[in-house]
């Protein structure tokens, strides 16, 4: 099996940085095409105008965060070659699987927050969903790995 197209799922967490570092290194070694996906999580939109922010303003803030994060990752790994960017809106685990299928990724690289027990049950696991639904290999970097 060859990995010619590697999709790296990122957000603004430390775990994501570790996963991106590993994904970029692997892509460089394999001379693979790289794409980053940052899902604008619609569940994080503020929908209460009493808080002083409209849903449209909230969405704009989330989009700016995604653009800033993707730009930072690309700057950190400058010189690696062209990096494709995806910024879909939706539920992260579903959008990652969808982008991987549409882009025809050969491998997905992502981090995990390492939640256990009740935290995992309540928050779910993006990585777990992607592993079970992606249809391609998924490399998950554990949170404690350096």
Please tell me about this protein's structure.
The protein is globular and about 55 Å long. Helix 1 (14-30) links the parallel strand 1 (5-9) and strand 2. Mean pLDDT is 84; it is low at 117-123. The protein has helices at 14-30, 55-76, 92-103, 117-123, 126-133; strands at residues 5-9, 33-37, 40-41, 83-86, 89-90, 107-111, 138-141. 45% of the residues lie in helices and 18% in strands. The strands form two sheets. A five-stranded parallel beta sheet has the order 4-2-1-6-7, sandwiched between helices. The chain has a two-stranded parallel sheet with strand order 3-5. The protein has five helices and seven strands, in the order E-H-E-E-H-E-E-H-E-H-H-E. The two termini are 27 Å apart. Helix 3 (92-103) runs parallel beside helix 5 (126-133). It is of the alpha/beta class and 146 residues long.
In short:
This protein is of the alpha/beta class and 146 residues long. The protein contains five helices and seven strands.
List keywords for this structure.
7 strands, two-stranded parallel ribbon, 5 helices, 146 residues
**Number of separate helices:** 5
Strand content: 15-25%
Radius of gyration: 15 Å
Specify the overall morphology.
Answer: globular
Name the poorly predicted regions.
117-123
Head-to-tail CA distance between termini:
27 Å
Major sheet size, sense and barrel closure:
5 strands, parallel
Mean pLDDT: 84
**Element order: H for helix, E for strand:** EHEEHEEHEHHE
Number of strands: 7
Q: How are the strands of the biggest sheet laid out side by side?
A: 4-2-1-6-7
Helix share of residues?
40-55%
Structure classification: alpha/beta
